[in-house]
Structure formats: C-alpha cells, structure tokens
Write a structure and sequence with these properties.
This protein has 412 residues and is mainly alpha-helical. The protein has a single domain (8-410), classed as Cytochrome p450 (Orthogonal Bundle), CATH 1.10.630. The chain has 16 helices and 9 strands. It has a 3-stranded antiparallel beta sheet with strand order 1-9-6. A two-stranded antiparallel sheet has the order 2-5. Strand 7 (392-394) and strand 8 (398-400) form a beta hairpin. The protein starts with 23 loop residues before the first helix and ends with a strand. The model is unreliable at 22-63 (pLDDT under 50). The chain binds protoporphyrin IX containing FE (HEM). Protoporphyrin IX containing FE is lined by residues 20, 62, 217-218, 221-222, 225-226, 229, 285-286, 289, 351-353, 357-361, 364-365.
C-alpha cells in the first residue's frame, strides 16, 4: 500500500519502537547486531558511553574525525582538461577517515590503491548496490550461484580475515596490564577498545563474531554515507559560486594560515554549516528509511496502519515538501538560520533519521563534513561541468548514475 503523509507530525513512525526494517539484501551484509543499553562497559573502564546509550554526543570514541584530502593527490586533480569524477576519490578519503578515527588504523587508502582490504570493502559496496538493483539477485540462491555472488563471498572472506586480524592484534595488546593501564588513562579510547572492553552485568564480553559484525557495520555505514554527503556538497558549491566564495572567506578568516581545524573551529563556521545542512536537505545521503510498526498507528487525518506493517519513509521527498519548504528546489542556506529554523517541526528535516534507531554517527558525520569542506574550499575552487549533470540514483545511499563531475582549480 502506498500512503502519502503530508503532515510532519505524522512522521511519529520514527518513534515507533518497532524493528528497523532493512532491504533483505542489506541485512546479509550489515548484520543486525547491536551493543544495546543492557551491555554497558566494564565498570572499571573509565568511559560512560555505551554504543546505543545516547551519551555518544560528548563521549564518542570517534568524536574527532581525522579526515583530510591527500594533498598531492588532490593537487594532481587540479586544472585537468576533463572534469573529474568526485565520488570515488571522496569515498577513499572517508574510508581512510573512519579507519583512522574508529580503529586507529592507518590505511593510506587514498594513495595505496593496492590495499587488499580496501579493495574488498570497495567491491562489497559495489556488489551490494548491484544486488539491490538486480531483482533476481534478491533471491539468496540465485545470488549465491551467480558470478557476482562468488565475487561477493570472496570479498567478504578478505574483509573478515582483515578485521579478525586487527581485532586479534588489539586483543593481544590489551592482555598486558601495562597497556590496559594506559588505556584506562586514555581520554578517548577508540571504537575497537570499547567493543573489546564491553561487559554485561554478568561480566560477559562480546563474542568475536559480534565484535566483527559491529566493526563491519561501522565501516560501511561510516564511509559510504559521508562520501555521498561530501560529494553532493561539492556539487552544490560548484553550482552556487556565490555561496562557495562566502564559505571560503569564512573558513580563511577562522583558519588563517593553518591547514587543520581545531575542535573549537567547528562552531565558528556557521555559514558553511548552513550550506552543508541545505545540501543534506536537497541531497540526503540516505534517501529513505523503513520501519516495521510495533503497534498500530493513527495519523492526523484519521487513516491508520496495523502493527506489523513495513513503512518506508522517503526522506528525499519530505525534504522537498512545498508545504514545509518554500521554493523547495532552490538552494538557500538561510533556511537553516536560527530564526528560520525556529518554527519548523523537528521531523521535517531528518537526514540522519530520528527516534530510537536514528544515525549513531551523526555528530561525527557533521564534524567530518565540516572538516572536509573547510579544508577543501580553503585550497580549491570547485567548478561545475554543465555537460555532465548528475543523474540521481537513490540506492541505499543517494548516488549519481553517471558520477558527480566537477573541475578543480587551486584557490588564489
Ligand atoms: C552524512 C553522513 C551520514 C548520514 C546522512 C547518515 C544517515 C543515517 C541514517 C538515515 C540512518 C538510518 C537510521 C534509521 O533507519 O532510522 C543511519 C544509521 C546508522 N548510521 Fe549513519 N549516517 C551518516 C554517517 C554515519 C557515520 C559517519 C557513522 C559511523 C561513524 C554512522 C553510523 C551509523 C550506524 C551504526 C547506523 C545504524 C544505527 C542502528 O541501526 O541503530 N553513520 N545513518
């Protein structure tokens, strides 16, 4: 059944405590295993955060994104006769960032294209999207027997072997008392430290398989989404040079001669932040989410849906609803000024979804977007390529069928 909900208040489905419903093909890749609130870190361990404890805002082990465009590589992309396709370069940059930030793993994948793990992760993303697009592949047996299924399993094995090795090495390291002491002093242990030290009330830790599943989930949810976000922001900046220039001036004023951002800088670039939010409105990296209703729901107009229904919410359309957004197709960052946002319903703008199963990495992601945009716009000007307009492709994440093409030149 297809039902159109026009009232933002009706989007209370987000608050439904029902199961998160995923595309069946997605389920296999990102197993639904969670360190829930009942699994709290060892009391001796000096952190207050649990993965889903919602205190992650301040205490997240990955609160500091370590994203930065590889200087030499991005310099070499400047002043090309042909426009460059951004998505692939940005994906490697965000993968590099999540590996460093969450697992303290120096991947160098922006330049080291030969890294087998990175290639496997890349292959898995591609094959997952292909599986979703190809209807017969929704059947497990057909996919299993197909050449793509074979490639998928091989890539899974490589990725799992690598994750298992990283986990094993860290486990061995944590066995020595000296290292454990040091970890206790660490203000921000990384995500892997937290998973390995997590214990339930009975003192039981996570199984190896659970830890690996969490690591895999973070790896995927944490890089493809931000790659989509950053690529579309650059596209918007290329389309709107006046806003791009305002951002650049703001960034240069804050950074001066510095080539990196301090924690405090993130709150000093409000115009850039508004542009990022406006881009996430027009091009939400996750274009839709789904829920299985745990209980019946009645909407404002009296229509209702029974428990057990799977409801898909189209974030892309919600963000372009003309009843909420004046001239919805127009890129206008001022929509996100404090005055203009004050009266908007909290569920009218949901790039990170809402409710109990919203995006766990949203603060990290917003910071990552700010850092990436600030560092790039400080050094480069992004120009549009009108001959290759992007053809939007809503998959698990919002991509472009023909890539996102822009020209880069060094900013004066
Ligand atoms: C611009 C970047 C991002 C966007 C737009 C985004 C958006 C989303 C959305 C819409 C969901 C689905 C929530 C739902 O179904 O209601 C989600 C889930 C999730 N995100 Fe993000 N995300 C981003 C970046 C990240 C990053 C950087 C991480 C990790 C560091 C991350 C980790 C997760 C995880 C683990 C989930 C699953 C949560 C659960 O099932 O409980 N995300 N994200």
């Amino acid at each position: 059944m297809l039902t159109r909900l026009k009232n933002a208040k009706d989007i209370s489905i987000f608050e439904s405590v029902g199961q998160k419903s995923r595309n069946p093909t997605h389920k296999g890749l990102l197993r639904e295993s969670r360190v829930g609130p009942e699994m709290s870190p060892n009391s001796e361990f000096p952190i207050t955060v649990t993965y889903r404890g919602h205190s992650e805002v301040e205490e997240s082990p990955i609160r500091q994104p370590r994203i930065s465009p590889d200087q030499d590589k991005w310099d070499s992309l400047c002043n090309k006769k042909e426009s460059i396709e951004l998505f692939e370069h940005v994906s490697l940059m965000t993968l590099d960032s999540i590996m460093k930030s969450a697992f303290s793993y120096e991947s160098n994948c922006q330049t080291d294209n030969d890294n087998t793990y990175i290639r496997a992760v890349y292959e898995l993303s591609l094959l997952t999207n292909m599986r979703i697009r190809t209807f017969p592949y929704h059947n497990n047996l057909i996919f299993h027997l197909s050449p793509h299924g074979f490639r998928f399993r091989r890539a899974c094995r490589i990725a799992h072997l690598h994750t298992a090795r990283v986990i094993d090495e860290r486990k061995k390291l944590l066995q020595t008392e000296e290292v454990m002491e040091k970890l206790k002093q660490k203000r921000h242990p990384d995500f892997l430290d937290i998973l390995l030290c997590a214990k339930d009330e009975k003192g039981q830790g996570l199984s190896d398989e659970d830890i690996r599943a969490e690591v895999d989930t973070f790896m995927f949810e944490g890089h493809d989404t931000t790659a989509s976000g950053i690529s579309w922001i650059f596209y918007c900046m290329a389309q709107h040079p006046e806003h791009q220039q305002k951002c650049r001036e703001e960034i240069r004023e804050v950074l001066g001669k510095r080539d990196s951002l301090e924690w405090e800088d993130l709150s000093k670039i409000p115009y850039t932040t508004m542009c990022i939010k406006e881009s996430l409105r027009l091009y939400p990296p996750v274009p839709s989410v789904a829920r299985e209703l745990a209980k019946p729901i009645t909407f404002h107009d009296g229509r209702c849906l029974p428990a057990g229904c799977i409801v898909s919410l189209n974030i892309y359309c919600m963000h372009r609803n003309p009843k909420v957004w004046k001239d919805p197709e127009v890129f206008d960052p001022h929509r996100f000024s404090a005055e203009n946002s004050a009266d908007r319903h909290s569920h009218a703008y949901v790039p990170f979804s809402a409710g109990p199963r919203n995006c766990i990495g949203q603060n990290f992601a917003m910071n990552e977007l700010k850092v990436a945009v600030a560092l790039a716009l400080k050094r480069f000007v992004v120009l549009p390529d009108p001959s290759k307009p992007p053809l939007k492709l809503p998959q698990l994440i919002l991509r472009s069928k023909n890539g996102i093409h822009v020209y880069l030149k060094k900013a004066s």
